Amino acid sequence: MNIPDGWQIDIGLEIHAQLNTQSKIFSGASTLFGSEPNIQASAVDLALPGVLPVVNEAVYAKAIRFGLGVSAEIAQLSAFDRKNYFYPDLPKGYQITQMDLPIVTGGHIDIVLKNGTAKRIRITRAHLEEDAGKSLHEDFDYFTGIDLNRAGTPLLEIVSEPDIKSAFEAVAYARKIHQLVTYLDICDGNMSQGSLRFDANISVRREDSATLGIRAEIKNLNSFRFLERAITYETDRQISLLEANKSVPQETRLYDPGKDETRPMRSKETATDYRYFPEPDLLPVVVTDEMINDIKAEMPELPAERCQRFIDEFKLTLTDANLLANDRRLADYFETAVENSKNALLSANWVKSELLGHLNRDSVSIKDSPVSAIQLGELVSLISAGTISGKIAKDVFSALWSGETTSATIYIEQHGLQQLTDQTALEPLILEILDANPKQRQQLLSGKDKLMGFFVGQVMKQTQGKANPQQVNTIIKRLLQETP
Amino acid sequence: MNLNNATISELHQLLITKAISATELTKHFLDRIADRDSQINSFITVTPDIALEQAKAADLALASDTHTMLTGIPLAHKDIFCIDGIRTTAGSKILADFVAPYTSTCIDNLNNAGSITLGKTNMDEFAMGSSNESSFFGPVSNPWDHTKVPGGSSGGSAASLAASLCVASTGTDTGGSIRQPASMCGLTGLKPTYGRISRWGMIAFASSLDQAGSFTRTAEDAAILLECMAGHDSKDSTSLNLDVPRYTEALSRPLAGLKIGICSDYFKEGLDSAVENLVLEGIRELGRMGAKVSEIELPHTKFSLSSYYVIAPAECSANLSRYDGVRYGYRCDNPVNLEDLYKRSRSEGFGAEVKKRIMVGTFALSAGYYDAYYRKAQQIRRLIKNDFISAFKQVDVIVGPTAPSTAFPLGEKTNDAVSMYLQDIYTIAASLAGVPAMSIPVGLSKGMPAGLQLIGNYLEEAKLLQVAHQFQQQTDWHKQQPQSSIR
Amino acid sequence: MISDEELDLLGDLAQLSLDPDNRESTLTAINEVLELVATLNAAECENIKPLAHPLEAEQMLRPDAVSETNQRAKFSQVAPLFEEGLYLVPKVIE
C-alpha cells in the first residue's frame, strides 16, 4: 500500500483474544466451539432473572501472563464495570468489562519494518471482558436467530496506542500479538473460529498536522488479509474525502470482503452512551506479588528468547532459528525431535523441508501431523548413525506419513533398507561398475570430476539406494588411485 | 393452642409431639388462604399441590426423627424469589407468566430444612415501592384495616402473616421493604447485613442494596429463619464467606449494660407524634430493662434519601435491561423490528413507577451527569457508612422509629411520589451502609401498629435479635393481632 | 432537570417508548425525583472515595471447570419465540 505524499496515517488496534479456558469468564458453561446452538448457554449466560456472575480464576492467570509477556504493569487491584447497551446477542443488556481498573496497563510489542529496523508499538492497556453471543441472519426469512453459546466466553481486549502508521505495520503488530498469545498458551489463535478479532481505529492527517484526524472504527476483522485490505480502503476513502474538502464523520464501519470496501454499520448499537459504572455484583480482585511471581515462574519461553537459544544451543542459522521458533507448536515439535535424535542440525533440516513440505502439501496443521516428533527424531537418529542414507530416509518418512508404519526402525528391518556400509561388499560392486564403464572412468581420471556423480549414481542404483554416497565417493577415489 | 398466632417454635413442639401433623397444619393455612385472601390479595400464586406434597414428606421426616425446627412449617415467599417450576413474577406484567427454571439459594435452604411453600406473595413491582400498590396483580390491603396499605415492597409477605395465612414469610429489603411493612402490620421484620444471605435466585432490583430477610411473629422465629437462610454461596460473589452463628443461642442474654443510641435526626419534623410517643416509650422500656441510652449523631442522614434515589434507580436501570422479550417474559405482538420489540415489550410490560425509575437511573449514569449524580451519591454512601462506624464505637444498637407514620390509606400517596419516598426516610441509611436492622412492634396508634427500628453494626444480627427477644419478653405488642385474623 | 429532547434520548438509551398521552406527566415525575435528589449538591465530598460495595471484601475466584450441563430444553420452555435451537428476534440488517 502506498501512502500518498503529504499524508500520514494513524492507526490504533483493539485486538480481542478469546482466552482458551475450559469454562466461561462468569459462568461454568463450556467454551467449546462449534456446538449445537444454545446448549452451552447456562442460566447466567441467558441472563435469567436472579442470576449472578462469578469470576473464573484462570482468566486472571492468562491476562497476567500476557501482561508479563509485553512488559506491562499488572494492576494489584482491578475491578469490573458494566457497559450498557441493547443488542440481542447481549442478554443482560450490558457487558461486564473493565473500564476504570484494567488488569494490565502499558507494555509494548516490537515489530520489524520493511527496511529491517525495529519499531516499538506501545500498548495502552489490556482488560478482561465477556464475549457476546452470535446473531444468525441467514437462517430465517423474517427473523434473526440468536445463539448464546459464545456469550460469556472470556476475552482479553488488547488496546494499542495509535503508533501504527501503515497497513504493513498493523499486520506486523497483529501477527506478533497472534504469535504471543498462542505462544503463551492463552489463546488458540484460530482466527477462522473467531479466537482473535481486530477492530481498527483509523484516521489520517496532513504530514505537518500535529493533531490526529477524526477517526473511523472498523470492527470485527478476523484475518490479517482483511485487516490489510480494510486499512488500505479506509485510508484512501478518508484521504479522498479530505482532499475534496469534506470531513470524515466519526463512525463505526464494517469491512465487506466481497466488495473489498468499508461501509457504516447500520445498527444503533454503536451510537450510544454506554453509561459505565462499577459492577455491583462483583468485588474487586486483588493480585499479590506472590501470584505474579508464581505466574512468572511458569511463563513459557517467548519467541525471541527461544530463537536466540536455538542459535546459541543448537547452532542454527538466524533464518532457520526464526522459522522454527516462530510457531510454538513447531518449536516444541522441533525440540522433541532433537531430544530423540540428538542431532539438532539434521533435525532442523528435516523439520524445515520434509515435515513442513508434507504439512503444506496436504494442508495439515502441525498438531495433526501423522508423523510425531518422536518418530521423526528416531528417523533422524538413524540417519545420523549412518544406518540409512538420506535418500532411503525419505522413503521411510513417506511410509510414516501414510501410516504404513509407525516405527522407522521396524520398517527398515522389514524391508532390509539398512545402508550398505560394509566395505568388503561394496568394493567388488564398485570395481565392477568402474570396469563396466571405461570411457567414463577415463574421463574421471583425466579430471572431469562431474563424472563422480555418474559413478555414485550407478552404485546407488545397483544398491537400491542403500549405499552411503560419501562412502562410495571415498572408495571410488581410493580404487582409482590404486588402479588407475 | 391457636394455630393462627402460634410461632414456629410452638408449632415445632406440636409437630414433634404429634399433636398435629404437617399435612393438617398445611391444610389449615391453605384453607384460610382460600377463604380469606381475596379480602387482602396478599398472594399472587398459591401452591396447594406442592405444599401438600412437601407436607407429606415432612410428616415422614417427623416420624423418622430426621427433622429440623422448620420441618412442616408453612411459609409464604415473596414473589421475587425464583422457585423451580413455580410462577415467579416480581409483581410485574413482564414476568406474569414466567415459570422459574431454578430455585434461589435461600429458599432452597428453607425447602431442604423441610419447610412448606404455601405460595408466592404479592409485592410492589420489581420491589420498587412502599405501599404494595404498584403490583400488576393489584394492591394488597392491610389486615388491620382493609382501607389501608400494608407497606411495601414486601406488602404481600407482611399482610399474609398479619392475617395468619402463614406462620412466617420471606421478604426482601432494599431501602426498607421488610422493615416498613413489618412496622405497618405489627410484625417482626429482619434485614440482615448485606451479603449475609445469598442473592442467587433473588430477582435483582438494586444489587448493592438488596437483601433477603423475614417476617415473623417473634425475634426467636426470626433467629430460626436466619440460621437457615444465611450462609456463604459460591454462586453469589457478594455473599459473605463467614460461618453462620447459632442465632437462637444468643437470645436469652439479658440487656444489662447494653448501650443504645438515639439519633435526633430520626425524631424531626415529619414523624407522627403518636408514633413518636410509642417509640419513646419503647426506648424507655429498654432503659428499664438495663440498657443505657445516649445520643449519637449520624450527620449525613439528611442525604440518605437523595443518595438512595440515585443509586437504586441507577442499578435498577441496568438490572432491568434484560427484560426485552427475547429469552423469557412478556413480548409485544408482531414487533416490526428490533427496536419495536424492545421498546414495546418493555413499555407495555413495565408499570409506571418502574419505568420512571429506569429513566431516572439512566439519567444519573449518563455522560455529563455521572459525576454530579451517581459518583456523588456513592461518595455520600461512604460518608453514611463512616457515620455508622463512628456511632457503633459509642453504642451497641441504634434505636428509633421504623416509619414516619402508621399505615396510610390506599390511594393516598399514589400521586405523591415524594411523599411515598419519604416513607423510607429512617430505613434507607442502614441499607446504604449494609448494616443489619430490624423492626419490632412497639404499640398501636388508633388501632394501627407502629414499629421500633433497631440498627446494629455489621454482622451483629445476634445482638439485634437478643435485644428484640428480650423486649418481647417484657412487652406484648408483638402478640397483638388484627381482629380479622384471630378467628 | 431534564428537557423534552433529553427525555427522548433517555427513552432510546433505556429502550422505553414514551406514550404521547402522558409524556408531560412522565417528564414532571422524573424532574420531581431529580429535585428530591438535588440536595446531593450540598454534601461536602472532597477527597471522599466513592463506595461501590457496602463491604470491603475481595472477589472469590472460581476454578476453571465446566460445571454446567445442557439445559436448553428446560430454558427454552420459557422463551417467547424459539425455533431450531435459536432465540428469534425481528431480522436485523447489519
Give an overview of the whole structure:
- The complex is a heterotrimer of chains A (484), B (487) and C (94).
- Chain A has 484 residues and is an alpha+beta fold.
- Chain A has helices at 57-69, 167-183, 224-243, 289-297, 303-314, 318-326, 328-341, 344-361, 373-384, 390-402, 408-415, 423-436, 438-445, 450-462, 469-482, and strands at 7-18, 73-74, 77-78, 81-84, 94-97, 104-105, 108-112, 118-130, 134-136, 143-147, 154-160, 196-206, 216-221, 252-256, 261-264, 277-278, 285-286.
- In chain A, strands 1, 2, 6, 7, 8, 11, 12, 13, 14 and 15 form a ten-stranded mixed beta sheet that branches. A three-stranded antiparallel beta sheet of chain A has the order 5-4-16, with no helix packed on it. In chain A, strands 3-17 form a two-stranded antiparallel sheet.
- In chain A, a hairpin with a 5-residue loop joins β7 (108-112) and β8.
- Chain A starts with 6 loop residues before the first strand and ends with a helix.
- Chain B has a domain at 3-251: Amidase signature (AS) enzymes, CATH 3.90.1300.
- Chain B is an alpha/beta fold and 487 residues long.
- In chain B, α2 runs antiparallel to α3, α7 runs antiparallel to α15 (461-474) and α9 (304-319) packs across α12.
- Chain B has an eleven-stranded mixed beta sheet, sandwiched between helices.
- Helix content of chain C is 33%, strand content 7%.
- Chain C has three helices and two strands, in the order αααββ.
- Chain C is flat and about 55 Å long.
- The mean pLDDT of chain C is 91.
- Chains in contact: A-B, A-C, B-C.
Task: Please describe the topology of this protein.
The complex is a heterotrimer of chains A (484), B (487) and C (94).
Chain A: E1 7-18, H1 57-69, E2 73-74, E3 77-78, E4 81-84, E5 94-97, E6 104-105, E7 108-112, E8 118-130, E9 134-136, E10 143-147, E11 154-160, H2 167-183, E12 196-206, E13 216-221, H3 224-243, E14 252-256, E15 261-264, E16 277-278, E17 285-286, H4 289-297, H5 303-314, H6 318-326, H7 328-341, H8 344-361, H9 373-384, H10 390-402, H11 408-415, H12 423-436, H13 438-445, H14 450-462, H15 469-482
Parallel strand pairs in A: 13-14
Antiparallel strand pairs in A: 1-11, 1-12, 2-6, 3-17, 4-5, 4-16, 6-8, 7-8, 8-11, 9-10, 12-13, 14-15
Chain B: H1 8-16, H2 22-40, E1 43-46, H3 48-63, E2 74-78, H4 105-112, E3 116-121, H5 155-162, E4 168-173, H6 179-185, E5 188-191, E6 211-216, H7 219-229, E7 259-263, H8 273-288, E8 292-296, H9 304-319, H10 338-349, H11 352-365, H12 371-394, E9 397-401, H13 417-421, H14 428-433, E10 437-445, E11 448-456, H15 461-474, H16 483-486
Parallel strand pairs in B: 2-3, 2-4, 7-8, 7-9
Antiparallel strand pairs in B: 1-3, 4-6, 5-6, 5-10, 9-11, 10-11
Helix pairs in contact in B: 2-3, 7-15, 9-11, 9-12
Chain C: H1 4-14, H2 23-37, H3 72-76, E1 82-83, E2 86-90
Antiparallel strand pairs in C: 1-2
